[in-house]
Amino acid sequence: MNIQIINGPNLNLLGVREKSIYGDSSFESYLETLKSRYPQLNIAYYQSNVEGEIINKLHEIGFSFDGVVMNAGAYTHTSVAIADAIAAVKTPVVEVHISNVYKREEFRHHSMLAANCKGVIAGFGMDSYRLAIESLIAQ
């Protein structure tokens, strides 16, 4: 089973930025935990701060991978283009958020992507990614 994790803008700074919200671990260290927990899966990782690059990655893997775990960061709330890319591919996408976006600023309460995703997982810290993978395995 091939799972692609896609992280959007500023998530390359996990472990450094806003530790009270996002914790003090880098995503790369958590990725190693996921890979060791799921040795039967091929878990690929991609991060970009650029909207078009995220769309290109969805197009590249969206017909061949078994699932996508997507944390689009702030693009979640603004990107019709990423929402359209999710709708255009056949690979199921699970939207994830490390923080509980509903406890944060009002603009974070709406996702442009959610209607095109299999589901949304938010507020469980890095464990949101594991929960998303579990949902893809169970499909």
Automatic annotation (TrEMBL):
Chain's role: Catalyzes a trans-dehydration via an enolate intermediate.
UniProt cross-references to InterPro entries, sorted A to Z: DHquinase_II (IPR001874), DHquinase_II_CS (IPR018509), DHquinase_II_sf (IPR036441)
Family matches, as PANTHER family: CATABOLIC 3-DEHYDROQUINASE
Catalysed reactions listed for this entry: 3-dehydroquinate = 3-dehydroshikimate + H2O
Pathway(s) where this gene product acts: Metabolic intermediate biosynthesis; chorismate biosynthesis; chorismate from D-erythrose 4-phosphate and phosphoenolpyruvate: step 3/7
Assembly, per entry: Homododecamer.
EC number(s) per entry: 4.2.1.10
NCBIfam families recorded: aroQ, PRK05395.1-2, PRK05395.1-3, PRK05395.1-4
Active site (UniProt): 22, 97
Family the UniProt entry places it in: Belongs to the type-II 3-dehydroquinase family.
Keywords on record: Amino-acid biosynthesis, Aromatic amino acid biosynthesis, Lyase
Binding site for substrate: 71, 77, 84, 98-99, 108
Entry keyword annotation includes Signal: no
GO molecular function: 3-dehydroquinate dehydratase activity
Transition state stabilizer, annotated site positions: 17
HAMAP family linked to this entry: AroQ
Name of the molecule in the record: 3-dehydroquinate dehydratase
